[in-house]
Each structure stands twice: as C-alpha cells, then as structure tokens.
Amino acid sequence: MDKHSSSVVSAPYNVFKQSGSANWSVRFSIPGQGQIQKSLGTRDRHEAKKLARRFYYESLLKAESGLNVCAKPSSKITQVYIAYMEARAAQGMMPKNVAAQNTAILMRYADGFFGAQNPNFISTKSVDAYLSWRSDYWITEPGKDISFITYERNGKTITTPITEKKRICPIPATLNCERAALNGSL
Q1: What is the pTM of this model?
Q2: 51: Cα separation from own chain's centroid
Q3: Both ends of the chain: CA-CA distance in Å?
Q4: CA distance 122 to 83
Q5: Mind listing the pLDDT tens digit for each residue in 23-40?
Q6: How far is it, in rounded angstroms, from Cα 23 to Cα 15?
Q7: Residues whose CB falls within 8 Å of the CB of residue 128, separated by 6 or more in sequence, listed in order
C-alpha cells in the first residue's frame, strides 16, 4: 500500500503529497548520497514543481562538488564528537578533564555559533567570524546575560560567578585550545 496520497512523477525526481499533508514534497536519489526527501512547504502544485526542480539541481551541484547533500547540522556532529570524546575518556585513552573541557567549549561556544549551519559551508572565513564572536562572547554576545557557570571537575559539580576578569577577551592560548576542539569536531 502506497503511503502517498497523490504524486506528480517527473524524472529524475518525484513530487508528491504524503497522506495527511497539505504540502508537496520531493524525493530523488543521487549516487553516493542515497535517497533525499524534502518538504517543499507549499500547497500549490505548480510552485512545488518549480521548487522541486531547483532543489534537485542544487543537490546535484553540491554532490558534484564533493559536498554531502544530506549533511546534518553542526550541532548533531558536535553531539557525536562529544560522545566519542566521552567514550575515549571512559576507556582511558583521553584524560577526563580534557574531554570535559572540550565538551564545555563545544557546547557553549561552537554549538552556540555554528549550531544550525551545514558543516559543508564552514570555511576559514566562518572560523575567523567565530573567533571574533568568541572574543566578544562575554561582553556583547549571549554571555553578557550569564551570571554563573556550572561545570564538572573531578566528579564534582562546581558553580562559579562570572567576574569582570572573565568578561575580558580570552587570551590567545584559550582561542588556540578552542580552535583545536573545533578542528576535531567539524
């Protein structure tokens, strides 16, 4: 039994409506990328055909450029990398304090900046923008509204206030450590 209520077949992609949905979707396969399915966000059949065509050819161009068409957002990759670091720390292959520090860096800063971005499009320019954003994090960015930081050290949960000293731009060694954590995860 077909789960789709209606469809418009036009090679090499299929524009269809799922049962119970008012909006049209597109589905197609690209060698090496698998099957790709995306909601087109429109109820208009003519508009759906145009959007499907555009999405299909954009996806082909990405695939031909060596990019992953179905890339997960950076936040998902960060979560996978954190799990990997924690597993290595549990096996004794990485110091637990390094894993915890990298986890905190990635969650607060990298995920805060790159979270929803497609990692295929993170470039040197993006990393430079991140470092600039990170330098201002505690002054004008999201950190300006944070009063306390909670973290874990040697199995103990520690809560510490954000002092004016911490609100100053991070030292280069801190940014280098964060850049290393970014290189590992992205």
Answers
A1: 0.56
A2: 24
A3: 41
A4: 22
A5: 999 999 888 778 888 888
A6: 10
A7: none
